[in-house]
Amino acid sequence: MGATGDIIFSGLFQGSLYAIMAVGLALIWTTIGVFNFAHGALMMIGAYATWSAVDYLGLPLPLGLFLGVAASGLIGWGLQVSLIRPFIGRDDIVLMVVIMTLSAASFFENGALELWGPRPKQLPPLVEGTVNLPGLIVSAHQLAIILISPFILAAIWYLLHKTRFGLQLRAVAQNEEASQLVGLNLKALYGIAFALSAGLAALAGIFLGGFKFMSPVMGSDPLLKAMVVVIFGGVATISGPILAAFIIGFIEAASSYYFGLYWTPAILFLVLITTLMIRPEGLLSTPTRRLS
């Protein structure tokens, strides 16, 4: 398969990580209508917390992964309670949340630098070794992520579409005032949405930490790519960013192979700008904010 196989495999791997990150971002947008710029820092916290559990405490990776996701989810919930909730209902909530989440991201990154130090760290892979595919030798860790990601995304879809919690979250996304009138606890739903989003970010960080070295700013680049994915696919849906994640992943993989890493960000932004000029609401979205 040669170059084509490398591009397809790399696109699937990157698309899987971007999809998990982007679904978390889209979940916050569809629920509260804001972007969480601390999403990348929450990704980093999940990866570092897992590393601490595995390296310091000697826990097995699955248990460390669970603790990392839980720690990030708890911090995400705290972030919503302390920095987002006070501004809900205000006309300037978007601007205030941008400032608050950017500040929180800086605080988390510098806190991680103080707590864990600048030395790069790496998590053990989910699966050791390599796998021989027809015409291609690939990392077993990357292949495992490609195979696991659809189940994670399917579980999120099931949660949002087939459970009472998902129904309540979708109701809040469509009409907050009507949701309050029927007795839904908006504060609790917002908190759970943030915790779930942070948990997804942590999961992406843990997957990435088994493939690349970790640093306190490891979430900055994935956050930027996830935002491109969400805007490209449509901020008002969950399904749009999933499709967009794999399109962006394949574009990035092909661009890196043929034009080099330095040109890849410029090409991605060119795709994004072109999409916004032709279809401002994204590929699969409508101009309204809803959860679908």
From TrEMBL:
Identify the InterPro entries for this entry: ABC_transp_permease, BCAA_transport_permease
Which keywords appear in this protein's UniProt record, sorted alphabetically? Amino-acid transport, Cell membrane, Membrane, Transmembrane, Transmembrane helix, Transport
Its Gene Ontology molecular function terms? transmembrane transporter activity
Which GO terms of type biological process are on file?
Answer: amino acid transport
Give the Pfam families listed for this entry: BPD_transp_2
Q: Where are the bilayer-spanning segments?
A: 17-39, 59-81, 133-160, 188-211, 223-250, 257-278
Mind naming one GO cellular-component term on file for this protein? plasma membrane
- What CDD domains is this protein classified in? TM_PBP1_LivH_like (cd06582)
Compartments annotated for it: namely: Cell membrane
Q: What is its main location?
A: membrane
UniProt topology in membrane: Multi-pass membrane protein
Query: Family, per the entry?
Result: Belongs to the binding-protein-dependent transport system permease family. LivHM subfamily.
**UniProt name for this protein:** Branched-chain amino acid ABC transporter permease
What organism does this protein naturally occur in?
Aquibium oceanicum
